[in-house]
Amino acid sequence: MSRKKTVKGKSSTSSPTAAASKSKENGKPGESISTPEITSNGTVHPSRPSLSNSSEFYDLAFKVMLVGDSGVGKTCLLVRFKDGAFLAGSFISTVGIDFRNKVLNIDGMKVKLQIWDTAGQERFRSVTHAYYRDAHALLLLYDVTNKTSFDNIQAWLTEIHEYTQQDVVLMLLGNKADATHERVVKREEGEKLAKDFGVPFMETSAKSGLNVELAFTAVAKELKHRSMKDPNEPKFKLQDYVNKEMQTSGCCHS
Ligand SMILES: Nc1nc2c(ncn2[C@@H]2O[C@H](COP(=O)(O)OP(=O)(O)OP(=O)(O)O)[C@@H](O)[C@H]2O)c(=O)[nH]1
Ligand SMILES: [Mg+2]
């Protein structure tokens, strides 16, 4: 991807450093936010417990942001990942920004993801911009049943490049892949757009759970590999990993 940077003074590394790990575990959707606790270049503390929940140990911690138009399913994707449930029924648009934590076991290491769920509505954009800079990874969503949300991806990418760190991990997700009859954006179109911008891509469904775990795990793996910087380990390739996992599970081409 051609990653034009205009913002100066950004950290260009995801390597881990010591940092406080005071945490608001299990923040609830709609709750107002507290100060973020992970530094802009990640944290590592061997088996460090978070302060608010001593049972939750982790080795690495990263911030992941969910972004994209209102209604594409960001909150539902997070709830599916965190709680394994789908928020059916009336759509409650997110106000401002909120986060939830989840610790994953990645190749024997406990990787904590602090996942920020942003409001897609335009009027909250200035609020969410303030959080981009600290993000280690972004999941950019569109809705396969909503062409406008797909057409807006390019504008989102411009915004992301302007406000995030240069080495932010980025993945494009075409959500609501379960909605076969309402689909207006083909998987191939998503693939092409992602390829044009050099971004890993896959389709997901917060409703059925399709690829939800995989999306977050792939990002966590990428961040872990970057932070460990082991020259003996082969370079982790996010898209290859995702393709391989989808093949193995025999899923995910709708
Ligand atoms: N069929 C289907 N519907 C979904 C899926 N994900 C979300 N939805 C529905 O889409 C609507 C919007 O979902 P949200 O997760 O609230 O959307 P959002 O991106 O968080 O929207 P904002 O908070 O306004 O930015 C809700 O009615 C959900 O039930 C999915 O994977 N499949
Ligand atoms: Mg939301």
UniProtKB/TrEMBL annotation:
One Gene Ontology term from the biological process aspect of the record: protein transport
Keyword Iron-sulfur appears in the UniProt entry: no
Keyword annotations from UniProtKB, A to Z: GTP-binding, Hydrolase, Lipoprotein, Magnesium, Metal-binding, Nucleotide-binding, Prenylation, Protein transport, Transport
InterPro entries named among the record's database cross-references: P-loop_NTPase (IPR027417), Small_GTP-bd (IPR005225), Small_GTPase (IPR001806)
One Pfam family it belongs to: Ras
Composition skew (Polar residues), residue ranges: 32-51
EC number: 3.6.5.2
Protein's name in the database: small monomeric GTPase
Organism: Paramormyrops kingsleyae
